Amino acid sequence: MTRKQPAILINSDGGIIIDSTVIIDGHEDLVPRIVTHIHSDHTRRLRTSIQKSSLLIGTPLTLEWLKVLGFKIPDSKIVPLNYDQSIELGELKISLREANHIPGTAQVVVETTDQRIVYTSDFKKPGERTPILSADTLVIDAVYGDPTFQRSFDDYIDEVLTDLIRELLAKGPVYVYGYYGKVQEVMDILRRNGLDAPFVLSHKQYVLAKVAERFGMNFGDYLHANSREAEDVMRDGWYVYFTHLTASRRAPNGLGNHVLLSGWEFSRPFKRLGGRRWLVAFSDHADFMGLVKYVEEAKPKQVIVNVRRSTAGEKFGGYVAKKLGVKVKLLP
Question: Fewer beta carbons below 10 Å: N end or C end of the chain?
Fold first, then answer.
């Protein structure tokens, strides 16, 4: 007998509930929770989940990073899953697959005997760095869901960022501001592109980097901002300092150049904000055409657009329905 398709709901957190058996990136009392990555819009009510959920599932790096960010998770509730590993919850088989967003990010695959549901989580570079997964039902966050949100320079933004920082270093220190996880990704990119200046990190970014190295990332030499070695390096004036994006509001005046990392720029790879402040259009999300590419190649029978985590989700859903001929549902 064919099993009916699992019920899929999205709650006010943006959490995806599947068959009342598991919730992804949201909270429901007593329901096991999957955390796809550490960004705040995907960890809403996580402290409540730690208290009231039976299990917390994520990649090993994500679960360790959550501890660095102050989430005290009992070992008895932690279920680390490497990419391509699976776990069974009730009648559902659940596995995590790689997503190119920040380190540790996972797509989620939920399978029954005859249905395959895929939640993409956040991703970029589909088909190149993020595997495109076939699905009967595809749940997607259309972060850049408006058709005008297109970046023609995404394929070479890594090189643009490296070249800009290298050029600015010739004039003094460079301060880079980004979200947790994005900073570690950029550190890795700069090293792979041959930048050898010392890295200095604020406390939490430093601890996150140390954890990431245990899971195979390599950042070369880097120093804690409060260490004596960092003080010596900073006196020399040739270094890259990494900290959280919110620290850009209190950036030191007259000291070096300051680079803010943001995806909300579509007309050019970088721009000068005034004085010694720059914005680089470095995004960890696919632009509009990247979202469309994922849907087109995944060939789902149905697309659910997670409106809570989408910009112009209605426009994106309308485009997919009209241009790709796929049934679309907007939730919640």
Answer: N
